[in-house]
Design brief:
13 strands; 30% strand; 33% helix; Rossmann fold; 4-stranded antiparallel β-sheet; transport; alpha/beta; P-loop_NTPase
């Protein structure tokens, strides 16, 4: 069975999570196919951590449904073993040595791969006898990722794991993430507000903003479907059918519009330019914020 035909790693339908009166996720519909490295991007407070904690079974939804690898999150010990999770602060036990962490991982996980764990620890230069409390942020992140990957999970989930790392440590972490995904044949979801991280390693994108998914899909397909149109001011107010305006800017004599289109660009009678991933993400986030302001 190919990845395209297999069970989605995550499927949400009407997924809603409230904390008292605050709505963290509001009726989210989302399907993540297997075999992808997925970037989950959005501003702080957008609901990214809530979605990932729901996927790991650490939270229960207020309403709606969520399936991870075809089952309810954390419905059994066997299902827990199929998901590896690295939380935002890459938690480790300060008084445990690196080797203690590997021993604990082996005790708790039936499919534990000690050879993989020891090889990766050596590769990133961690001393097995070193106490975790004395490791740098980058080293703690590498240890936490190694423990998650040595479970040999089908899905790896990373919640802003590299946010606090310096650029060099972050690059090393992301390179190892890609290597783990390839070695395990796993899928991965990486949440980040650093778009450069997403661009470096992800082939699938989810933009989460204002408690809802604004756009999702393969990065390649999304970039192919979005364009920047440039025309004399006011002319972009009358666009052909099949062209959806995501964001419009009027600047001097010209209008610029980020559009999603079903029709080929040559049939659009204006200057058509490609867009970057950053422009695409910021366009959808700006639209979500503008809609939120308009409903207050």
């Amino acid at each position: 069975m190919s990845h395209e035909d297999s069970v989605p790693v995550l499927r949400a339908e009407g997924l809603t999570k409230r904390y008292g009166r605050r709505v963290a996720l509001n009726g989210v519909d989302l399907t993540i196919p297997a075999g992808r490295v997925v970037g989950l991007v959005g501003p702080n407070g957008a609901g990214k951590s809530t979605l990932l904690n729901l996927a790991c079974g650490l939270l229960e939804p207020t309403s709606g449904s969520l399936r991870v690898l075809g089952s309810r999150p954390a419905e059994s010990a066997a299902h827990l073993a199929r998901v590896g999770f690295v939380a935002q602060d890459t938690p480790v036990y300060p008084s445990f040595s690196v080797a203690d962490h590997l021993r604990l991982g082996a005790r708790l996980n039936p499919s534990w791969d000690q050879e993989l764990a020891e090889r990766r620890i050596a590769q990133v230069g961690l001393n097995p006898g070193q106490k975790a409390g004395r490791l740098s942020g980058g080293q703690r992140a590498q240890l936490a990722m190694t423990i998650a990957a040595a479970k040999r999970p089908e899905l790896l989930i990373f919640d802003e794991p590299a946010a606090a790392l310096d650029p060099l440590a972050r690059r090393g972490f992301l390179e190892n993430l890609v290597e783990f995904v390839a070695e395990l044949g796993a899928s991965a979801v990486l949440s980040s507000h650093l778009l450069s991280d997403i661009e470096r390693v992800c082939d699938h994108l989810i933009v989460l903003c204002a408690a809802q998914v604004q756009v999702a899909g393969k990065v390649q397909d999304l970039l192919a479907a979005h364009h920047r149109l440039v025309a004399p001011r006011g002319e972009l107010d009358r666009l052909p059918a099949g062209v959806e305006v995501v964001r419009m800017e009027n600047n001097g004599q010209y209008s610029r519009a980020l559009v999603r289109t079903d029709v080929p660009p040559p049939s659009i009678p204006y200057r058509v330019e490609p867009v970057t991933l950053e422009e695409l993400v910021l366009g959808y986030m700006s639209r979500a914020f503008a809609a939120g302001e308009g409903t207050r």
